[in-house]
């Protein structure tokens, strides 16, 4: 079987956890300890005393701030919607000072500021989280997310059993260093797949969509009623829709917190990309060399103006004469990747527009706003963290990836593109199919970004809606 699988990114390499049978449990405990830590660091962006969610429009921040334990589905003051896709922009604080950006499609109401008592309550919430790939952002779901949102509210259109649900929530998150999210500080590794799953966990907890104190079926679970039904905040579970490298984040989280996830959709990716155990020393050496040499360029010792806030590295980004040139480069880059990949101009425009800023602007995590490129025609640069091009310090062995597969307890849907990312490891494909046994395992027309291309997205939407219904 030919499989698109750019899951852990080209640079996802090494750090071997010692016990492959305890991978998910280790990740689960680590996430729980971080979130419940008594001493939250205060690093300018966030402090425990000021924990809050910030809602913004796609162009400006509003003054709206709500406490993290409020119900996101029932905002109490006006929020600005994106005129293009009906979403609103969120900023979600994390315990380490990172702010995660997201686009959110909420259940319908008479207005964004409607009284909470008018919100849909007769149906359980269906919460869907979309996870993007390497160097992408939430805009890679600019077609898929709103379509899934509207189709599910209308019942999906598949058979007599299809019923509408007005309580649909769709959230497209952006990993640190991507899109409008904060960049990691200079002293921290910029891309560990397990850390991305951690930020997913923190986002879900901040939104009140899951309870970080919940137990697994193997624990002394007191969050069940007399009939064994889950009574926690996450009742109904979360659906994860992940693309490319995001499929690793989805499966890692689903394995570590199986009680939180009811379904997983994987788009052109099989989860963590395993590496050979015997290559461990080589990968460590490669990662160290890149980090040391690049740090000297990104954070020069004699630069007295460098505040070392983790975002100044953006000033070294390549500058393009205008947005169109940046879009053209993104399209060309796709054709240089393995296989017969390509990306449509529409998909590239959406991703690059959200991921670019004027060349003279710093990528300030407090002021990451959508740029109006209908009026700005000057030089641009990509806003993502330049360190994302480095090799990672972490990767999983085949045994560890298989352990993660075994710990996923929900139905899985795998959709992969005809001209998607070719699998470099036939053994991993066989393990995926044998262990996870995906309910849907289907090849669709298109390339790696078939979910963002207007010519191919409809088939992807149809399959996902059918699986979710």
**CATH first level of the domain at 20-109 and 122-275 and 395-468:** Alpha Beta
What fold name stands as the CATH topology of the domain at 20-109 and 122-275 and 395-468?
Rossmann fold
Q: What CATH architecture label of the domain at 20-109 and 122-275 and 395-468 applies?
A: 3-Layer(aba) Sandwich
Supply the helix-strand structural class: alpha/beta
* Shape verdict: globular
Strand order of the largest sheet: 2-1-3-4-6-5-7-8-12-13
Please trace the helix and strand order, writing H or E for each element: HEEEEEHEHEHEHEHHEEHEHEH
Distance between the termini: 27 Å
Tally the beta strands.
Answer: 13
Mean pLDDT: 76
The unreliable regions are 1-22, 34-52, 55-83, 110-118, 220-235
Helix content: 25-40%
Largest sheet: 10 strands, mixed
Helix-strand blueprint:
Blueprint: H1 23-36, E1 53-56, E2 61-66, E3 88-93, E4 99-105, E5 126-131, H2 144-153, E6 168-173, H3 193-206, E7 238-243, H4 246-256, E8 261-267, H5 280-298, E9 319-320, H6 323-335, H7 345-354, E10 356-358, E11 380-382, H8 398-407, E12 412-419, H9 426-436, E13 440-447, H10 457-468
Parallel strand pairs: 5-6, 5-7, 7-8, 8-12, 12-13
Antiparallel strand pairs: 1-2, 1-3, 3-4, 4-6, 9-11, 10-11
Helix pairs in contact: 1-3, 1-4, 2-10, 3-4, 4-8, 6-7, 8-9
What is the gist of this entry?
By secondary structure, the protein is an alpha/beta fold. Helices cover 26% and strands 15% of the residues. It has a domain at 20-109 and 122-275 and 395-468: Alpha/Beta hydrolase fold, catalytic domain (Rossmann fold).
């Amino acid at each position: 079987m030919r499989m698109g699988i750019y899951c852990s990114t080209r640079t996802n390499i090494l750090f071997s956890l010692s016990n492959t049978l305890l991978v998910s449990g280790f990740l689960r405990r680590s996430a729980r300890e971080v979130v419940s830590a008594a001493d939250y660091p205060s690093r300018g962006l966030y402090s425990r005393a000021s924990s809050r969610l910030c809602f913004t429009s796609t162009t400006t921040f509003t003054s709206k701030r709500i406490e993290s334990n409020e119900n996101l589905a029932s905002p109490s003051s006006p929020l600005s919607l994106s005129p293009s896709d009906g979403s609103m922009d969120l900023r979600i604080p994390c315990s380490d000072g990172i702010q995660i950006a997201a686009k959110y499609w909420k259940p319908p109401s008479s207005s964004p500021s409607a009284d909470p008592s008018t919100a849909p309550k007769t149906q359980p919430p269906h919460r869907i989280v979309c996870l993007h790939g390497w160097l992408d952002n939430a805009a890679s779901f600019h077609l898929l997310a709103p379509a899934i949102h509207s189709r599910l509210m209308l019942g999906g259109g598949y058979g007599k059993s299809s019923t509408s649900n007005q309580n649909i929530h769709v959230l497209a998150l952006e990993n640190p260093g991507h899109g409008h999210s904060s960049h990691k500080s200079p002293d921290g590794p910029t891309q560990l797949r397990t850390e991305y799953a951690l930020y997913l966990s923190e986002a879900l907890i901040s939104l009140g969509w899951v309870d970080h104190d919940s137990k697994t079926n193997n624990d002394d679970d007191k969050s069940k009623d007399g009939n064994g039904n889950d009574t926690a905040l996450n009742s109904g579970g979360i659906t994860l829709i992940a693309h490319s490298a995001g499929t690793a984040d989805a499966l890692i989280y689903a394995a570590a917190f199986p009680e939180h996830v009811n379904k997983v959709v994987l788009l052109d990716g099989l989860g963590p990309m395993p590496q050979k155990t015997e290559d461990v020393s080589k990968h460590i050496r490669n990662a160290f060399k890149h980090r040391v040499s690049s740090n000297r360029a990104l954070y020069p010792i004699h630069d007295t103006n460098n505040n070392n806030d983790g975002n100044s590295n953006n000033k070294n980004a390549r500058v393009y004469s205008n947005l169109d040139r940046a879009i053209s480069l993104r399209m060309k880059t796709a054709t240089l990747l393995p296989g017969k990949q390509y990306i449509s101009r529409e998909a590239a425009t959406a991703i690059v527009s959200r991921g670019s800023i004027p060349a003279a602007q710093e990528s300030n995590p407090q002021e990451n706003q959508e740029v109006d490129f209908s009026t700005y025609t000057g030089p641009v640069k990509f806003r993502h963290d330049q360190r994302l091009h480095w090799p990672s310090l972490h990767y999983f062995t085949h045994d560890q990836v298989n352990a993660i597969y075994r710990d996923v307890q929900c139905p899985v849907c795998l959709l992969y593109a005809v001209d998607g990312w070719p699998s470099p490891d036939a053994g991993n494909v066989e393990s995926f199919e044998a262990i996870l046994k995906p309910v849907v395992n289907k090849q669709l027309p298109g390339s790696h970004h078939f979910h963002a291309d207007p010519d191919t997205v409809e088939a992807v939407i149809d399959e996902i809606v059918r699986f979710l219904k």
